[in-house]
Amino acid sequence: MATNAQDAIVLLGDSITQDGWSPNGFAQRLANAYVRKLDVINRGMSGYNTDWIIPVFEQCFAKQHEQQHLPKVRLLTIWLGANDAALPPSGQHVPLARYGTNLAKLVHLVASPDSPYYAPHTRLLLLTPPPINTHQWRVTIREDDPTRELDRKFEVTAQYAEHVRAVGREVGVPVVDVWTRIWDAAGHVEEQLSEYSYDGLHLNDRGYALVYEEIIKAVSENYPELHYEKLQPVFKLWDHINPQNPGPDLQKRSIFPA
């Protein structure tokens, strides 16, 4: 990030995060809510699992000695698991235990003073993968290959979602329970998950609306100082500028205590 950029929210994840820039996606909604206050940086990597995202994080997140010269990451969301939960022999599959270890490592990289990426100003949220609609996903994957076997199971993805909750408790990081929110919205009927997903795995705008609501709720409950309504614009609103002497009012300001 350029040194004159605003502080930021960084979204780390897989295709469900990457697609968050789609119209009415959760990233687009966050960017709209935090406009002029915090930049939203999307580091969603389609197809990636927790094994592969760690090297990405280490190249995208500033080390301690670099942070003093850069805008600060105020919120980091970590949303992975939809691909880790793919069934073996899929190359995306990450065993459940290692998945939990990887999530804990990502948290450690940011939250531990022993880490070269330690950022005490960064708040973290872990997100569970959403439930998969295997009925819808089977149709999707067989459009190109009618013989392709189903590579995900509803109950397996549920196990990965539960593991996120467990890791969150262990490392003391709030969990945005996307799985439960969407499963409840679907009335606990797998086929009705199609109301929140366009292909059985990835979310549509209705699904993303629920994710956005849950993220804002988690911020409000755990990091209220980061709620968009509590933040002032980095640059003053136009009606707070002195037309006779605008220069002082047009200077970038920090919206957080030093």
UniProtKB/TrEMBL annotation:
Residues 11-210 form the SGNH hydrolase-type esterase domain. GO terms for molecular function: hydrolase activity. It holds the Pfam family Lipase_GDSL_2. Keywords: Hydrolase. This is SGNH hydrolase. It comes from Daedalea quercina L-15889.
